[in-house]
Structures are given as C-alpha cells and as structure tokens.
Amino acid sequence: MSDARDDELRSELRALRPALYHRFHRLLPFVAHPVARWLWAVLGWTLVAGFFTFCGLILFLRYSVLPNIEAHRPRLE
C-alpha cells in the first residue's frame, strides 16, 4: 500500500520538475554567477552573525542589567 503511494508521489515529482525548470530557468544565470554566490554567502554569514549578536545582547540584558534594575530605578523614573 505504501509502495503504491510512494510511486505515485515520485511520478508527480517527475512531472513537476520540468514545469519548475521552465518557470525558473531564467534565474539560473543570476543565482549561479560567482558574484551572486559570494553575495548569498555574505548575506548568510551576516544573518548568522546578527542572530548570535542578538542572542548575546539578550543574554547580556538578562544576566547583567535586569538583576540590577533596582539600582537604576531613580535614573529611570
């Protein structure tokens, strides 16, 4: 029973691949160009660095600023 469903799914995917290729083949030179690949890599590493910076900021606030918030109350008010 499962094998029949797997075969049906594979045949649907085989039919989908040419349709997707014909829709997106014009983007391939822009995506596969070495400069574009470099830009994607820089963007990816920038997002990773931004994520860890944000996490570090949250941890800094959680463990150093918020426990001492009572000491800063007069300046905040």
Structural write-up:
With 77 residues, the protein is mainly α. The chain folds into 2 domains: 1-30; 33-77. It is built from 4 helices and no strands. The radius of gyration is 25 Å and the shape is elongated. The mean pLDDT is 86.
SSE map:
Elements: H1 2-24, H2 28-32, H3 34-65, H4 73-76
Short characterization:
The protein is mainly α and 77 residues long.
Please tag this protein with its features.
single chain; 77 residues; mainly alpha; 4 helices; 83% helix; 0% strand; elongated
Q: What characteristic shape results from the CA principal axes? A: elongated
Mean pLDDT: 86
The poorly predicted ranges are: none
The strand count comes to 0
Tally of discrete structural domains: 2
- Largest sheet, strands/sense/barrel: none
Percentage beta strand: under 5%
SSE succession? HHHH
Q: Pairing-aware structural class of the strands and helices?
A: mainly alpha
Helix count from the secondary structure assignment:
4
N- to C-terminal distance: 69 Å
Helix content class: over 70%
Could you tell me the radius of gyration in angstroms?
Answer: 25 Å
